[in-house]
Amino acid sequence: MKGLKKKAEVMTPSDTLLDWARQVLDQAGVAYAALDSRLLLAHAMGCAPEALLSGADVAADPEQRFRQLVQRRAAREPVGKILGFRDFWKDRFHVSADTLEPRPESETLIESVLSLCPQRAAVTSILDLGTGTGCLLLSLLREFPHALGTGVDLSQAALSVAEANAQACGLKDRVRFMLSDWLSAVDGTYDIIVSNPPYIRADDRAHLMPEVRDYDPALALFAGADGLDAYRMLLPRISAYLAPKGLLALEIGAGQSSVVQALGESAGLLHRGTVNDLAGIPRCILFQPMSPLKDLSHA
Ligand SMILES: C[S@@+](CC[C@H](N)C(=O)[O-])C[C@H]1O[C@@H](n2cnc3c(N)ncnc32)[C@H](O)[C@@H]1O
Question: Which domains does the chain possess?
Fold first, then answer.
């Protein structure tokens, strides 16, 4: 017991570095200073973050590298952009300066689609509008084993990242990526259409966290004066691309659920529900085409 107690009190060089990093990041206003410190030290040492818990030691070069990484994080570069990847759903996605870093709250969209499509084998086609890293489309292709995917984006650089992610996920043969201004280059109909479009108001830029404002591409963030430009563009046109029993799932920003629901309903879509994220914010809105039966009953 005595020996154990002594061991627990010994500070390894990595503990000292982690303490230093946590203080630097705390002072810089970084939210998860201890977690990010561990991720960055593991990255600098080329080991898994868990290895640091068992007291892995730090040689001189990794220490210097780690100190540089911590200074980048203290300048509010997001940890995912420093590491070059972000984990989302069941996979690890490359990110770059040209892509939005996948967000945990976007997993709400994946969960919502799965809960409304229990017949996984019946889904054969999925369209993702504004695919970025491809995280939504590739995660859905993993869950719907018979589906083929189409991902579009206005950024060719983002599409290159999505292609690399499809390759890394082993899904390259089931997906195609296209440069398209929303639906302009898209044809056909789809069982599932998803989109996490830009939805931030242009004049909210000054209020964003530096991690978002300075490191996510503006094309991925802003959507006009009220943040609704993309929904206004997509909703009136989307029915032509939805299969008769298809499902449309859109990510929305805080406070946008009722107006986006109204936009969908006035485009003739049936509102199937709105799902909150883990913070209790309405995050995903679901629509289906009006069923032909229902239309007849109104005739
Ligand atoms: C909020 S990001 C979402 C990225 C990814 N789907 C995700 O959930 O992490 C929005 C994406 O829409 C793309 N985008 C913006 N305007 C577009 C347009 N007019 N046509 C197609 N894609 C567009 C951006 O380049 C960006 O990749």
Answer: 2-75 (1.10.8), 89-298 (3.40.50.150)
